[in-house]
């Protein structure tokens, strides 16, 4: 009598959900994680479902999240992270421009059976996202002297101005990101034009002027308004009408007419010079020899302002006695457009690693995946096992 035992490796993996939640859209991705305890932040997980939704179609965040889970027909989610455009406190954020939208990690855990759900600010998500960048996904603006243990800083102008820093440490030596409100420090003018600009914006807003009111999309519009007020003879009526009548797209109109409108050209140049100066300020604050990354849509859409002889770079380095410290900082422009999702992925993966770690008093076991997610490796193992069984059977039949 012969007893044949064949062991099959079943598809039993963890799933994590990540999201990038802005004021207009909610983007979600689910990844299948094969090795939850793999060290470091290298991302090699398999994407099994992704979808975006318009926020305006949902009264509450839980509604759009539930819709996503239904659309995905997912197995159980173990952990997740959402990068959200708003001030986050204790995994909770209220999106002020979306009435009723409160996102709370603990509520999502209870309602949807998720073991751990982190909520981070969107720019903190961007910071974790830079940890995943490949050389082809950045453009080196300044080589500097890289130190892989030194702090990292990220700055990015878009609708607003985000700034964040990271330090390495802990048992694994991984970088941790810390939020800041650096974009809201005082705007510090450096020349006569900027002093005039400061006074113009101060009058417009009836108070204090932050650097974000100059270095951002809305800052670009503020600069244009200052210039049109100072040089009315340079105003091109058809361009001016578009800029002044469309609040949402005003900055896009200014940048779009940069090469055919002198006021728009000067506005863009002034903003990039101020942007460079603030980037240099960030370099002095944190001495981020681990890398200073420039993110955000403004730079990637206007790369001609980021050349070696640009006003941006000159202003960044113009720090008097401490200019040499800025020269030592490696400065890179981020070309990738999905930093938020990448960063949320990094955070979710770290949470999963903690939950499943052998050192955890009650480490989690993987949930079997739905039949639709059985991968090629599993199918191959079944085929090999079946072939082996058939061969053995034929061998004994011949005898």
Structural write-up:
- With 399 residues, the chain is α/β, with parallel strands linked by helices.
- Helix 3 (122-130) packs across helix 12 (339-356), helix 5 (217-230) crosses helix 7 (250-256) and helix 5 (217-230) packs across helix 8.
- It is globular.
- It is 39% helix and 20% strand.
- Strand 10 (161-169) and strand 11 (174-179) form a beta hairpin.
- The strands form three sheets. It has a six-stranded mixed sheet with strand order 8-13-12-9-10-11, sandwiched between helices. Strands 3-2-1-4-7 form a five-stranded mixed sheet, with helices on both faces.
- It has helices at residues 61-72, 105-112, 122-130, 192-205, 217-230, 237-245, 250-256, 262-286, 297-301, 311-317, 323-327, 339-356, 376-398, and strands spanning 14-21, 25-33, 46-54, 79-84, 92-94, 102-104, 116-121, 138-142, 152-157, 161-169, 174-179, 291-295, 331-334.
- The chain has 13 helices and 13 strands.
What would a concise description of this structure say?
This protein has 399 residues and is α/β, with parallel strands linked by helices.
Can you summarize the main beta sheet? 6 strands, mixed
**Helical segment tally?**
13
- Identify the strand order in the major beta sheet: 8-13-12-9-10-11
Distance between the termini: 13 Å
Q: pLDDT under 50 segments (min length 5)?
A: 1-12, 369-384
Q: Please tell me what the overall shape is.
A: globular
Number of strands: 13
**Roughly what percent helix?**
25-40%
- Based on the structure, what is the oligomeric state of the protein chains? single chain
Q: Which class of secondary structure composition applies to the elements?
A: alpha/beta
